[in-house]
């Protein structure tokens, strides 16, 4: 991870940690699986909020018409999902159908962890799921960089 520190007033960035994830990951089930994309940050102020952002590239292979995929961001210290997308399943992408066969798509998800209230180390991670058991999705760095970022924001 690479850390940067900026100083300012309310709403300013205090620090940012970035992890680049080069390792391929495949999910062939319709359950959420942790991808191994993780970023750790130790807040400097207990009152800060942490904004977690992940940009990742998906390769999908479908034998039937798939109906999309979903992603969740977690605080791995508490196993709690942070933020919500369009529904309680997490950030839902593509109400389908996608194309039968192979394809490549880039996604970005962002959520705010406002349950910090401490300066303890916390680690965040990305989990992904397919909504169709006849397809598989994988993180792939061939078509772009996969990153997860934790940004501490002053309150």
Q: Secondary-structure map with pairings?
A:
Blueprint: E1 2-5, E2 13-20, E3 25-27, E4 33-41, E5 49-62, E6 69-75, E7 80-82, E8 91-93, E9 101-113, E10 122-130, E11 135-139, E12 147-153
Antiparallel strand pairs: 1-2, 2-12, 3-11, 4-10, 5-9, 5-11, 5-12, 6-7, 6-8, 6-10
Specify the structural class: mainly beta
How many whole angstroms does the radius of gyration measure? 16 Å
**Basic shape:** elongated
Mean pLDDT: 79
Low-confidence stretches: none
Distance between the termini: 24 Å
Helix content: under 10%
Number of strands: 12
Q: How would you characterize the largest beta sheet?
A: 7 strands, antiparallel
SSE pattern = EEEEEEEEEEEE
Number of helices: 0
In terms of DSSP E residues, the strand content is over 45%
């Amino acid at each position: 991870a690479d850390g940067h520190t900026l100083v300012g007033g309310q709403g300013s960035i205090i620090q940012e940690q970035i992890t680049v994830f080069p390792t391929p990951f495949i999910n062939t089930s319709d359950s959420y699986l942790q991808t191994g994309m993780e970023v750790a940050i130790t807040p400097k102020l207990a009152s800060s909020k942490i904004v977690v952002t992940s940009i990742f590239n998906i390769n999908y292979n479908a034998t039937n018409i798939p109906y999309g995929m979903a992603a969740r961001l977690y605080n791995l210290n508490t196993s709690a999902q942070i933020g919500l997308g369009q529904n309680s399943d997490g950030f839902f992408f593509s109400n389908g159908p996608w194309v039968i066969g192979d394809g490549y798509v880039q996604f970005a998800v962002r959520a705010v962890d406002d349950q910090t209230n401490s300066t303890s180390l916390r680690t965040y991670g990305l989990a992904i799921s397919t909504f169709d058991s006849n397809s598989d999705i994988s993180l792939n760095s061939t078509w772009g960089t996969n990153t997860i970022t934790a940004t501490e924001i002053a309150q």
